[in-house]
Amino acid sequence: MIKNVMFLISFCFLLSSCKTETPPPPIDKKAIVDSTITAFQKTLLEQQIDSVFKKYHFNGSIAVFKDSLPLYRKENGYSDFKRKVKIDSNTVFSIGSVSKQFTAVMVLLQMEQGKLNVTDKVSKYLKEFQIKEYENITIHQLLNHTSGLNMMGGKLMFKSGTDFFYSNDGFNALGKIVETVSGKSYDENALELFKKAGMTQSSTGNIFKGSDFASAYLGNASKFEEVPNMPKRLGGKEIGTPAGGILSTIHDLHTWNNALYSGKILKPETLKLFMAKSAERHHAIFGKMGYAYGIMLNIGKPNSYFHSGYVKGSPSLNIYYPETKTSVIILSNIADEEKGKGLVFKPHIEVKKITDHLENTLNQLRSGH
Length: 369
Fold this sequence. Notes:
By secondary structure, the protein is an alpha+beta fold.
């Protein structure tokens, strides 16, 4: 299918560059080419992502946007299995660790106001880090998981700054730093950030009051068990709001991607710091990747920023391809944990492979013309 797309789009480029003997009124050749590429993108995505929905009986929502243009969108299944409430465009999902990029941005916004620096030691702001074991950990090391911290109170996994170990407690500490230097709760800071980005349906699990929340389930459509106390449990010690307690929608995450990567949230130099690879992660499901501040990066092509998220029953993935300004967002509210995380994230992995391949194809065409 990709080869066919490349041939047809290449033909379109050639056709658009041909000269005619009697010049017609001016034609916007670039617009013709762009619209042709977009049509093929839509066709390809519809065929291949629809097959993912069918293959895995995927219960959730998947969308692909190129800047503000929707290329693909589909919702399937239920936000409430007991009452048979269908997922729709307003459904609010728990996004798990996709929340970490919001926490990272909150930290950087405080830095822009001169209230902290990422090179500062965490012990400057939090008493629990004022012990010999933790005294040299920096904010930078919490942001990219190189602090060596696993769980608060435990021994470090390695000397800070020498390796990578993914720590939810590290990001919850970052949330506390934001509260300390801003004088406001994490929830208040989150709401301010959502407003700045133009996100109208997002919240934290602590303060959510809407009626469109997708209840989380373990199992499958025929045999399921509801995860109790959602979304309030996201703010508890087991997870923690800064590490994984934000709720959002397809539309709001698309709005967030566009606002963040276009420079509407952070200053250019701060955004560059946010996106800069400063560690490497060997993810059990997605493989080897770069890590920046609460965000993962492809190693190799295509260039992309992404993060997966998982709290019980809610696997998610948010991808942004900067070269084409394309967002790919996958949200769900049921997971068959007995089959293992690898199978839970199989639809997400397949969609990422589809969109990575398509992105590479488009970049090859662009570089060839």
